[in-house]
Design brief:
Layout: H1 2-18, E1 31-40, E2 44-55, E3 61-75, E4 78-99, E5 102-121, E6 128-146, E7 151-162, E8 164-176, E9 181-190, E10 195-205
Antiparallel strand pairs: 1-2, 1-10, 2-3, 3-4, 4-5, 5-6, 6-7, 7-8, 8-9, 9-10
C-alpha cells in the first residue's frame, strides 16, 4: 500500500505540469487535497489522513484518486485494538455545467481496502492477527454550487459496494483563501451501519 500512496502523491505533484495543458472555464477540476480523515461507525472508529487529486483531462472528464490511512483503536466486540486501514481509490468522473454557478458531476472509482494489525476478540485471552483486504467500487453523484464568491457547496450521494453495499448522503464546503489555496470540509453519513466519514483539509488549485 506504501507504493500506492506514492502513486497518488506523484500524480498530484504532476498536475503542476499538466494543468497548463487544459484551459478551463467555470469550476476547476484540477487540484490536490490533503488533510485529516475520521470514520465513526457502529463497528469501529478511527482517525488518520488522506491525500488525493483530481485532474481535469478534458472539458467534461476528470481523473481522480485518493490514498488514506486510518489508525483504529476501537472495534466493536474487541479490545486491545491496534489496526491500520489503508484505502486506495482510482477512477474517473464526468461533469457538466448547468449554469455559470452550478455543475452536475459524477465519479466512479475502484476501491482497495487493506486491514493490518491485531486485536483481542471479546471472550479470548489472546490477540489475533488481522491481515485482510477487500475490493470493490464506489459511485458518487454530486453538485458544485457557487453560493458565494469564495464559498462552494457540494451536496452528494454515494453508493459504495466494498464487502457490503451501502448508500450515503452528505455535504461538502470549499472556502477559497486565495486563488490557489482553499479549505475543504466534507461529511458523508451511511445509515446502514450508522457510519460517518469526515474530511477536513487544504486544497491546492492548479
Amino acid at each position: 500500500m506504501t507504493n500506492k500512496c506514492f502513486l497518488v502523491i506523484a500524480a498530484a505533484a504532476s498536475l503542476v505540469t499538466f494543468s497548463q495543458m487544459t484551459a478551463a472555464g467555470g469550476f476547476n477540476y484540477t487540484f490536490a487535497d490533503a488533510g485529516y480523515r475520521n470514520v465513526d461507525s457502529d463497528n469501529y472508529s478511527g482517525d488518520g489522513f488522506q491525500v488525493g487529486f483530481s485532474f481535469g483531462a478534458t472539458d467534461y472528464m476528470h481523473v481522480v484518486g485518493t490514498y488514506s490511512r486510518l489508525w483504529v483503536d476501537d472495534i466493536d466486540g474487541a479490545s486491545s485494538v491496534d489496526v491500520d486501514i489503508d484505502e486506495f481509490t482510482i477512477g474517473f468522473g464526468g461533469h457538466y455545467s448547468i449554469t455559470d454557478k452550478i455543475d452536475l458531476a459524477g465519479e466512479l472509482v475502484y476501491v482497495d481496502d487493506e486491514y493490518t494489525g491485531d486485536a483481542r476478540p471479546d471472550g479470548l485471552g489472546f490477540k489475533t492477527n488481522i491481515n485482510e483486504s477487500e475490493e470493490g467500487y464506489q459511485a458518487t453523484v454530486y453538485g458544485r454550487i457557487q453560493v458565494l464568491e469564495k464559498l462552494e457547496m457540494t451536496p452528494h450521494v454515494v453508493y459504495r459496494d466494498v464487502d457490503d453495499s451501502e448508500t450515503g448522503f452528505g455535504l461538502g464546503l470549499v472556502y477559497d483563501l486565495t486563488r490557489k489555496f482553499a479549505i475543504r470540509v466534507r461529511g458523508t453519513h451511511f445509515s446502514d451501519e450508522s457510519t460517518t466519514n469526515l474530511f477536513v483539509g487544504m486544497r491546492l488549485n492548479m
